[in-house]
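Q: What structure does this chain adopt?
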Amino acid sequence: MERTLVILKPDCVMRGITGLILTRFEQAGFKIIAMKMATPDYQQLYQHYEGIGTLKSRKGEEIFESQLASMQDGPIIVLILEGVEAVGTVRKMVGVTEPKNALPGTIRGDFAHVNYSSAAKIGRGVANIVHASADKNEAKSEIKHWFNDNELFEYQTVHERFTQPK
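A:
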């Protein structure tokens, strides 16, 4: 089974839609094997967004700093999902990064509508509800960054009985 990291961002938590988002993942058959609420500091976010995700290198200082500031607006919920092709499928469910371009039926398409320019005008990161690992290598690094091995749980879901051999 593949694992991926998901972060429910402050805009998700503060809107009170975390349950709706978690339900979508569970209804798709993904298993939550770790989850916690956190208020990460600048250094932890720096490692996540630049040390692993290279946001500053790719998009520049201004976008990077506004993203980190937005991620400190309130608490976040960090979780690990496990399932068949978890990284790619969760990315599809989440939708493209810029909400205005996210298709209806995706999390960002259904729960967000802002674009890069509107966020830049007010000096904020794009309020796009959720972060999901971009690829398998990023998922492995992000999981190690946010969780210790003793925080991951092993159990069998009813769904697994239909997707795994006996």
